[in-house]
Each structure stands twice: as structure tokens, then as C-alpha cells.
Amino acid sequence: QVQLQESGPGLVKPSETLSLTCAVSGYSISSGYYWGWIRQPPGKGLEWIGSIYHSGSTYYNPSLKSRVTISVDTSKNQFSLKLSSVTAADTAVYYCARHHDDGSGSYYNGWFDPWGQGTLVTVSS
Amino acid sequence: SYELTQPPSVSVSPGQTARITCSGDALPKQYAYWYQQKPGQAPVLVIYKDSERPSGIPERFSGSSSGTTVTLTISGVQAEDEADYYCQSADSSVVFGGGTKLTVL
């Protein structure tokens, strides 16, 4: 059974870069699927950040695109998120998840399952 | 930007039927997905492709679609179903609804 686990600093200073890693077990990333990042500010709803295909193609939320980089390391079976120039508005629980394709060939037509447990990242000096 | 609209809250008594709606202009041509999120936990997929139920999800969870509205129906609601529910779809990008808090009275 596929399991995902996020890791990274829980506290980041304003203007710095947030870096998180998602370790995948029970499935080889290089075998397929998209892999995504979603965040949830405290007490608020879910926001898709971006996804990466197992081949390395990336897709980002237009509202975050200028600050986001997602990469994959198939040798370690993990993928990573970098979000630059963070502010307090980036404080959130960050989740990674396997991103399924509905068969249409468009990355955005799909669902997320399973999810990691999430990790809280606070942006504060 | 594209938006999916959900009611902020729905309340039902145990054993009754809960219906949570999600509206969006692109829903007639895009699938919708539903997630359940309990406090302090990660979201869990309960419906995919409008009406398909993943393995392990109870049969009381069902989904339907009509025009610009999709609906998550929970039949015979149990106390354990109290949670936030989010719809998700797309219109050239991935979009989540604002979430609906289901309260079991």
C-alpha cells in the first residue's frame, strides 16, 4: 500500500525559501502517476500548489507559479517542493499526495489519493 | 479564476440523509471528486469521477452530477461522518471548493 510522508523545517523566516520533501513507500515513483503538493492555511480550505509527472514534467497553480519549484528524485523515491519569498500568508499545513489521471491526458483532470499526514510550516521571524 | 461553490455548513440528525452540493460552470464537462477531512487529519478521497467510490469507503457515500452542480450524498448518516467535505474539479487547473462542515446533531 502506498504511503507518503512529508518532511522539512517547521519554521521559515519571511522572504526565505520553504523546502519540503515527500518520501514515497510502497510504490516506485518512476513507474508512473503524477505527484502533487496541496496546502491548507490554519482554519481554511485546500489549495493545490502543483504536481509533477514521474518523467519530471511540472504543472503549477498559476497564482503561485512564479515562486514554486517541484522536482523528483527517483533514486530516493521522493519528490520535493520549494516555495520562494515566503510571507506569513504561506503559513499552512502542506500535504503531498499521489495525483491520479482520469485518462483524459490532462494533468488537472484527476484526483489525489492517498495523502501524506501533512506538515505544518509557519512563516515567522 | 475558476471557482467551485459549496455551502459552508450542513446539519443532519443521525440516520438521516445529508446532501452536500458543489457548483461550478465547468462541471458539465469535468469530473468532480470529494474528500472527507476530520479535525487534525489529512483529507481522504470518498468519491472520484463524479460517482465512483474507492475501495474501503462505505456504501452510504454516493455522488451524482446534474448540469453545473455535483452532489455528495451520505445516506443513514452516522456520528463518525461529522467532518469537513471538499469538492475538487478543474478548468485548466486544479481547483478545490471552499469546503462544507457537516454537523451530525
Automatic annotation (TrEMBL), chain B:
Domain Ig-like: start-end pairs: 1-103
InterPro entries recorded: Ig-like_dom, Ig-like_dom_sf, Ig-like_fold, Ig_sub, Ig_V-set, IgV_Light_Chain
Pfam families reported in the protein's UniProt record: V-set
Keywords: Adaptive immunity, Cell membrane, Immunity, Immunoglobulin, Immunoglobulin domain, Membrane, Secreted, Signal
Keyword Membrane applies: yes
Entries under Gene3D superfamilies matching the protein: Immunoglobulins
Keyword 4Fe-4S attributed: no
CDD domains for the chain: IgV_L_lambda
GO BP annotation list: adaptive immune response
Entry's Gene Ontology cellular component terms: extracellular region; immunoglobulin complex; plasma membrane
Protein name (Swiss-Prot/TrEMBL): IGH + IGL c128_light_IGLV3-25_IGLJ2
